[in-house]
Structure formats: C-alpha cells, structure tokens
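Lay summary. Proteins are chains of building blocks that fold into shapes, and those shapes determine what they do. In this project we predict the shape from the chain. Here is one chain we studied, written as its sequence of building blocks.
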Amino acid sequence: MTEPRPRDRRPRPRASVAALLTAILAPLAALPTRLDAQTSPASVSTEGSVHALGRIEPATGLITVGSRPGQRIDEIKTAPGDEVAAGQVLAILEGRKQAEAQLALAVLQQRQVEFKRKSRRDEINLERSQFDKTHGPKVQAAAKLAGELRKLLDKATPLYNVGSLVGAADPAKLEQGGRYVELLAKTTQAELDKSLLDIEAELTAEKRKLEDAQLGDENPDFQLAAAQVELAKAGLEQTQVVAPRAGKVLDVIGHAGEVGSGQLLVMGDVSALVAVAEVFQADVLRIKEGDAATVAIGGETIAGKVTKVGSLVGRNQAASIDPRALKDVRVVKVWVALDDPGKAARLINLEAEVEITPGGGG
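And here is the predicted shape, written in a compact code that computers can read:
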C-alpha cells in the first residue's frame, strides 16, 4: 500500500482575496475617476482661458546657417553667445588662398585693360585737340591759296595757246608754256587739298563715334575683364560663410578641420521673442490675433499678446510629464509675442506654459 504523504507544516498566509484586491486598487482610488476630454500635453481649457505648452524662439525664427556639404572647414570665427552683424564672416572654408589669388589675378588683368583703355583715350583726346586747333587754319590757308592760284590761272589761260606751243622751237614760248603748266598743276593741287580738308572734317564726326564706341563700356573686352573679376569674387565668397542677418549665435555645430555636413551653426534675433504654443484643435477657433496671454517660464510670468494663429493641424511636439495627459493629440500653433523678451533671451527653445484669454485683447 502507498504510504500517505506527510502534511505540509509550513504556515500559510491567511489574507483573503478581498484584502489583496483592496491593496492593489487602493492607489488607483486616489486618481480622478475620469480625464477631462480636453486634457492634453498641448492645451487645457479652464474657466474660459486656454492653456498650452510651447517653446520660446525668436520672432523671426531660428536660422540654421549652413555650408556646402563635403567642403572642409578651415576656421570658425564665432562662438555661441556672440552678437553678429548681417554679412559678418562666420567661418572660413577650404580653398580660401587659391580663391584670393584668382581674384587678385582677375583684378590685375582688369587694371591692365583699363590702363590700355585710358592710354588710348588720352591719345585720342590729344589727336582731337590737335585737329580742332589746326584744321580750321589749314582750311583757311588752303582755300586762300587755291583761290589766288585760280585767279592767276584764269588770267594766264587766255594769253597762252598751249596747243601752239607743242613742237615749237622758240625757247621763249617753251618757257612760257612750262610756267603755265606749272601754274595749272599748283592750282589743281591747292583745290584738291582744300577738298580733302573738307572731306576730313565731314568724316571726323563719324570717326569719333567709332572711337567712343571702342572705348565705351559696351566693348566686350572691358565687359570680359569685369566679368572675370565678378567670377573670382563669387569663388571667394564660396570659401566663407556669412551671417544672413544680424542676430545672436545660439549654437555652433561644425568644427574647424572637419568636413562640413551642411549645418554649421544656429542663430536668431533675440531682441524680439515669441512663445510658439501648441493649442488643442478644439480650442484654437476661440483664439484671435490680439488676444492677451501670459507665458510662464522659470518661475516667472511674462505678459504677451497673440500675433499669429496658425491654420495647419498637426501632431503635438511638446509633451507633458503628467502621466495622465494624452500623448498624441492634434494641435495648431499659436504665436504669442513677449512684452519683455529680455527675461527669456538666454534660453531659446525653453519650454513654457502659455495661458491665452480669448477675447481679452482689450
């Protein structure tokens, strides 16, 4: 026969099932019996006001300043907290010395072209001055000479029968005939010189137009020199990063010696700040521009005013630490300008609690 098992002599707990349930459910009894339908990490409506979480940022937004990816960073010329002016150099990238040399060469070539241009202009001006001073007297002298010779020729022509002098053996007649021919030649030459001076005067105006065009800014040679300088300047600008506007450097992402990944630093104008609140979609229709608001940060409350109400519904980014709050809600961004930005200027992106009074804009 099988021997009976010995009875377990260990003491057993005497707590009842009811006691166990009471111990488990007791902490839960302290929680609210239900959650407010509007409770969310984004916003809560209580007594007519709208509460929402938000972040502090510049009124003009955060600016991420970048460089061309893959380009090595030679020098960072600023640090977090620095105030910078628009156009100020923030960083130097590789290839700077080569770009400076190319610019110097382009500038030298442009100077060479301009030197030749000026020299030619001076030469032309001298020629024009000489022409203007001498052409008139030359014309007068030529006209006078041609006129006098024409008078002599007109008087001498009836006295000489040139045809009868041909073949004549009389030396006197031959001499007279030679003088007549010489007078005719001089008269013809003088009248020709006078005509050439008149023609030169007529063509001078056209000549000067051509010279001015050759020395003008429309000449491709001069445009090419200027374009080469601009191209070299553009190449130099590619080796530096400048501030797109005045503001404060908030964070430096890149470092000297490393190959840039695109983002170099973050900056913003902290002279005017806003709290970008995430308002629950059911509450945002009650809010309008100009509504009064308060922004609580670091134990201080700053007055403000709604300056912009968004129109795009999206998922909340701010999250409450309250375990009872909903974690995924649909919200609309609302911008609240701070009356006193100095209190929040040190910590951009700081989380803030925003309370908006609909219709409380005064």
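What the prediction tells us: Confidence is low (pLDDT under 50) at residues 1-11, 27-42.
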